[in-house]
Design a protein that fits this description.
The chain is α/β, with parallel strands linked by helices. It has 20 helices and 15 strands. The longest helix is centred in the middle third of the chain and has 16 residues, at 251-266.
Length: 394
């Protein structure tokens, strides 16, 4: 049988965590492991002579008891959303001396969302990095997933920036930095970054995205800032950075970012503002965002949230997730201009994004191939990436 090929230009992934995933490169991935017994079997095979990490665990499929965790080698398991983790006592003993505040507070959802930057940087720090391993990971992203250019949304340190700048990855990996890290960086590095990354709310996996109704179990989302505090930070960022990107999932968070940006524009600041994810942005807020020049940086692969989070989101929000047709057809956002696409590494690459774009859970999430390619387009002309059409169509 002759397989049909689909040629896609190499991608610019506008939202990823390159250094984090490079550290996870050799870790156990649990994304496709939907049965707890299978997960435990894999986890028990990990080495018992040091800290192990696993990632992409979906707590909606299964949870672990304390005794189950403590039967394992030392392991820290990162939630699929990246907004939380669990670990056993053996891992806790390894990590607590160096990271006492995180180990003391990681089970507190309000603390986690207020310190999510610290959590993500913690994940980077506990995982091994070398320029050789990062180059190998980048080559895998290119050859297996079609990703050539990558925006890392959280620069860990000035040292990491210099390591990338003095490597073959210089033209392929660029950075944003969280607010606290950005302020510690030399001015010469600040000027080379896209800007500052903030977190307005939480995540669906941890039931902390700021949506305008409770989750099905009664949990409510979290806004990380008052409007006044977020405006103060926006003003400071406008004075010292090239741009502002805000992690914003819920409709309440999107409205807050639009409100703050409108206030900033009244102060004659034209600094670029990006809303990252915008999963539940409503049409009224989207029209305001369009008028304010806010760019939406979204993940077509997150349309899957309308399936995997049926245990926590109402039908209204399952349907409201990733409203691409509303944004493009009704409001006028244009892929590649003010509507950009990335993967957040969940998963990397074009295959799953394309399948979700063409065959989404809801018709309002549908994208054409040309729209998807435009939103993901790389600046460099680096040829075409071929995939089997059957991989997307099946």
């Amino acid at each position: 049988m002759i397989k049909s090929k689909l040629a896609i230009p190499y991608l610019h992934d506008h939202h990823n965590h390159f250094t984090l995933y490079a550290g996870m490169y050799g870790s156990l991935c649990l994304k496709e492991v939907r049965d707890k017994d299978n997960a435990l079997e894999l986890l028990k095979k990990l080495p018992d002579n040091g800290l192990n990490t696993a990632y992409a665990w979906n707590s909606g499929f299964y949870t672990f008891t304390k005794s189950e965790l403590n039967s394992l080698p030392p392991v820290l398991i990162v939630n699929l959303s990246l907004h939380g983790f669990i670990l056993n006592d053996a891992a806790k003993r390894i990590l607590e001396p160096q990271y006492p505040e995180i180990i003391r507070n990681f089970e507190n959802s309000e603390w986690r969302e207020a310190h999510v930057n610290e959590l993500l940087l913690f994940f980077v720090k506990i995982m091994p990095h070398s320029i050789e391993s990062m180059c190998a990971f980048a080559e895998d992203l290119r050859t297996k997933f079609g990703i050539y250019e990558i925006e890392d949304m959280l620069l860990p340190s000035a040292e990491m920036f210099e390591m990338i700048q003095n490597s073959p990855l210089r033209e392929r990996v660029t950075f944003w930095a969280d607010y606290e890290t950005f302020k510690t960086l030399p001015d010469g590095i600040r000027r080379q970054l896209h800007g500052v990354k903030l977190f307005a709310d939480g995540a669906n996996g941890s039931k902390t995205s700021a949506i305008s109704e409770p989750f099905l179990d009664g949990s409510t989302g979290i806004l990380n800032y008052t409007e006044e505090r977020l405006f103060e930070i926006f003003e400071e960022c406008a004075a010292i950075s090239n741009g502002i990107a805000v992690h914003t999932l819920g409709d309440l968070a999107s409205k807050q970012v639009a409100d703050v940006t409108e206030r900033l524009r009244r102060h004659n600041s034209d600094i670029p503002v990006r809303i990252e994810h915008a999963q539940f942005i409503d049409e009224q807020t989207a029209r305001r965002a369009k008028d304010l020049g806010i760019v939406l940086s979204m993940q077509p692969n997150f349309s899957e949230d309308s399936v995997i989070y049926r245990d926590r989101l109402s039908e209204r929000f399952l349907r409201a997730n990733n409203p691409f047709r509303m944004l493009i057809d009704n409001v006028g956002f244009k892929p590649g201009t003010d509507l950009l696409f990335g993967s957040d590494g969940m998963p990397h690459g074009i295959r799953f994004a394309l399948s979700q774009a063409l065959f989404p859970p809801y018709i309002g999430q549908k994208l054409t191939i040309s729209e998807l390619v435009a939103g993901y387009a790389a600046e460099a002309d680096c040829g075409l990436f071929e995939i089997d059409a059957d991989e997307v169509l099946k």
